[in-house]
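U., I forgot to send this yesterday:
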Amino acid sequence: MTASKIDNARRNLVSSIAARIFNLILPFVLRAVMLQTLGAEFLGLSGLFTSIFTFLGLADLGIGSAIVYLMYEPIATGDTETVNALLSTYRKYCRIIGVVIFAAGAALIPFLPRLIHGKGPEGIQISLVYLILLVNTSISYFFFAWRDSLFRASQRLDVINYVEMGVRIATDSLQIAVLLLTRNYYVYCIVFPLMTIIRNLTIAYLSRIKFPQYMCEGSLSGEGQQQLRKRVAGLIAGRVSARMCYDLDNIVISASLGLVMLAKFQNYQQISSWLMILVGMLGESLIPGIGNSLIMESREKNYRDMNKYQLLYMWLNGWITAGLVCLYQPFIRLWLGSEMLLSDMMLPLFGLYYMTLKMDDVCYQYRVAAGLWWEDRHRAVFAGVFNLVMDIIMVGRFGAAGVLGATILYQVVFDSFWGDLILFKNCFPGYDRFAFMKKRIYYMVIIVFSCALCWFACGVFPTAEGRSLYAVALLLGRGLLCTVVANACMWLFFRRMEEFGDAMDLARRLLHPDRRAGESDE
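Result:
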């Protein structure tokens, strides 16, 4: 990556981390307030609806991602006419998507009782709450949703991140106030569509200031339409797979085990999800630069870059995995109380769930940047069907642990191994895919070893019940011990890798903005 690309990646990364850090505290508080004011069933209901509406978001067919990919080159070359045509096309599709999402969502209303094991929360009309949240999901597509593609394609994710940070803080603050003052779940839900409109209008206003030359006009050529259709067709499969493998997990738990179990499961899942988003922002901040590099740089240069990214990712996520395994129980006990804990036997599964998901991140970022959605379509379809079938089979035998096990198996077989095959075949033909896979297995073995060391080391700390400064001190002590042990272990083994020097140099340049233009990668 050249210095300018590193500047963009660093700016995007800093804004992403800032947004996530600011947005971490209030969601934790909000979840605790909802538990105290409304109860665990409402937590589970919120999680169920989130999964349903995320799944309905499949109606966008990945058009936004395809449009952003097709914008990279015309923005880089100053082809304003093509950018305008893409923007106009995106606007047209957004309006169609909004209608489709609302219609599909409304058609699900009669089936809502079947998605909840037991009666569900008392005192509310579930269909009315669902309708409010359905409006929130669909309304975004009618309020300038297409304008944020300009920031994404121009490597200015920092603008979107800061806007979303402000909107998220305002949303969570309002909802906490509503729950504390009124305990009214309807008013809590109404906040969502209001803030969604504010977010989209803000992005639209800023995009007109930053990119006054771009407007919705013109139409794509026949070749451009063909490229868009092909990429969207591939993206459909990928998006269906992702949603079937994660959001349907929650729907299966709700329908089979009930809202209270779903609430407990999602407490653990949400902690890892917040961390996944935080780490994922590192990859997202690099995608525009990777996409440009795949077009402009040599294959050898890109392969070397991918290996150093992989080492950094595995190191960072190995550290996080060790922390999750050792800190889940004391953190949830401190956060929500002992009644919301799952069995200690679930902790290794949650650790593997996080690690197997993140170990494919780098290859996934390269597949996205290279636009390999069409090539990925068969993998995605088989993966989604496999995970859904295994969820249904294993939840009956093993409960929530079965759902985790099914997802871990899916991630290893379909995301990592099959995903690698697609990437190497299309972007790195002639390179040894098995050598790359052996490195990944080596990383995983060291990370599992690090987690085991951390687990035994943390055994010296006693268990603290309730919320107290003593419990906080024990949690921080465990976290510090995990940080030292996990990083020392990974440094000891990872420094033997040939890409270690390149990876450390990239990390230094991402963290130190004063290193300037002459320091581009060769």
